[in-house]
């Protein structure tokens, strides 16, 4: 695909400067690497790249790239070496916003509306009393970390989706329904690896995967497209099921906090390089407005380099206070990916002067449903198991509280001989 390649057509500058030109918006090199000599390699440039990788605690593959470049000097027409270089360069992360490089390993708090954290019952206990959640005895037919939402909790899930999408439509987001099965090259182009022992991707076959977030499908929608500058920023929203192969055994992440599949409302934007920081701030503000209207107690963190995914130049996390768990739990994030994804997927825009430039992309989670359910239930539960809902959800749900569900007979596995 054209969008997955970089073309290096001349070596008038140091080779590595040419390959890693504008490092903060890294993308993959092409099959047009030409002969070069040892003096073309700029070690200072490589050290800067390696410093950024180590700062982000990303896998350091610069030594591998150096070795491959040395081999290519000796065999400049070796297609396999060129292919290996493409793969390794594709693994490099984005650059890092200068503001966050000195944060250490903790996020910088930029907002907190919960100055007096309270206590409460855990989500699982409230749901057990209301009989609206089932996670036990499912392994023989639904798999590990599966769950059933029942009664009013299932209705609340749909209400959260409707509430979020309604808000986004009023704020000029265009809605798209996206596929859940994507080619692996689209997922890789978004900055998530589909190979290796620690990837979070479910692979259907060698070329197709289940999507971990609709961000990937939305980015794929614009692959090889040219957008007129006057249409930017172009803001898109989608509801999808998200599939994650990796879960956690940590006690604080039990229940539906971290699961293999869940519903999520995602925001995505294609914009110019001058707009991407502004778009990121607007995504953060959108998320904050959504959660304030739900009466949630939360804080916003400007995340340090070690917490940035491969594609993110800058990222905000939003954590809600979960009274039952007595902890802050991430319910949302938003990222500025600059042109990291656009250069891999060949997403461009045309300026008023007719110039073609690579676009910038940004993304944000408007509603990760399972974690919002936890935050809402633990924050609004009162005596006798009654859960009163925020005003914004009452009209959608046609109720002001969650009612106790009729008890369904427990199911038992019966062996057949």
TrEMBL record:
InterPro entries documented for this protein: aa-tRNA-synt_IIb, aa-tRNA-synth_II, aa-tRNA-synth_II/BPL/LPL, Ser-tRNA-ligase_type_1
Swiss-Prot/TrEMBL keywords: Aminoacyl-tRNA synthetase, ATP-binding, Ligase, Nucleotide-binding
Domain spans labelled Aminoacyl-transfer RNA synthetases class-II family profile: 156-390
Organism domain of life: Eukaryota
Top EC class, one word: ligase
GO biological process, one term: seryl-tRNA aminoacylation
EC number: 6.1.1.11
GO MF, any single term: serine-tRNA ligase activity
Family: Belongs to the class-II aminoacyl-tRNA synthetase family. Type-1 seryl-tRNA synthetase subfamily.
Full protein name: serine--tRNA ligase
């Amino acid at each position: 695909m054209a969008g997955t390649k970089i073309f290096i057509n001349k070596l008038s500058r140091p080779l590595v400067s040419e390959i890693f030109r504008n490092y903060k918006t890294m993308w993959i090199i092409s099959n047009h690497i030409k002969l070069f000599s040892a003096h073309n390699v700029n070690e200072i440039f490589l050290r800067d790249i390696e410093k950024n990788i180590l700062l982000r605690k990303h896998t350091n593959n610069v030594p591998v790239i150096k070795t491959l470049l040395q081999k290519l000097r000796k065999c400049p027409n070796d297609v396999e070496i060129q292919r290996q270089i493409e793969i390794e360069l594709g693994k490099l992360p984005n650059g890092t916003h200068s503001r966050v490089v000195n944060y250490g390993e903790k996020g910088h708090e930029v907002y907190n509306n919960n100055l007096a954290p309270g206590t409460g019952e855990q989500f699982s206990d409230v749901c057990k009393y209301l009989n609206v959640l089932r996670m036990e005895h499912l392994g023989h037919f639904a798999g590990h970390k599966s769950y059933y939402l029942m009664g009013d909790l299932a209705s609340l899930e749909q209400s959260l989706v409707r509430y979020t999408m309604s808000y986004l439509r009023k704020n000029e987001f265009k809605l798209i329904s996206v596929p859940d099965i994507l080619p692996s090259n689209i997922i890789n182009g978004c900055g998530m690896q589909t190979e290796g022992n620690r990837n979070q991707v479910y692979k259907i076959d060698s070329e197709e995967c289940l999507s971990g977030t609709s961000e990937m499908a939305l980015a794929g929608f614009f692959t090889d497209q040219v957008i007129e500058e006057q249409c930017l920023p172009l803001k898109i929203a989608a509801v999808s099921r998200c599939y994650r192969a990796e879960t956690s055994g940590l006690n604080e992440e039990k229940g539906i906090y971290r699961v293999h599949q869940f519903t999520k409302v995602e925001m995505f934007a294609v914009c110019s390089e001058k707009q991407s920081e502004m778009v990121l701030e607007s995504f953060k503000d959108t998320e904050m407005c959504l959660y304030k209207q739900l009466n949630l107690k939360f804080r916003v963190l400007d995340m340090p380099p070690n917490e940035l995914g491969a594609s993110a130049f800058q990222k905000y996390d939003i954590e809600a206070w979960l009274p039952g768990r007595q902890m802050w739990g991430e319910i949302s994030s938003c990222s500025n990916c600059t042109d990291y994804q656009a250069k891999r997927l060949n997403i461009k825009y045309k300026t008023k002067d007719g110039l073609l430039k690579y676009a910038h992309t940004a993304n944000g989670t408007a509603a990760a449903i399972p974690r919002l359910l936890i935050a809402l239930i633990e924050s609004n539960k009162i005596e006798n198991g009654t859960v009163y809902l925020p005003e914004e959800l009452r009209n959608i749900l046609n109720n002001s509280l969650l009612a106790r569900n009729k008890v369904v007979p427990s199911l038992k596995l019966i062996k057949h001989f």
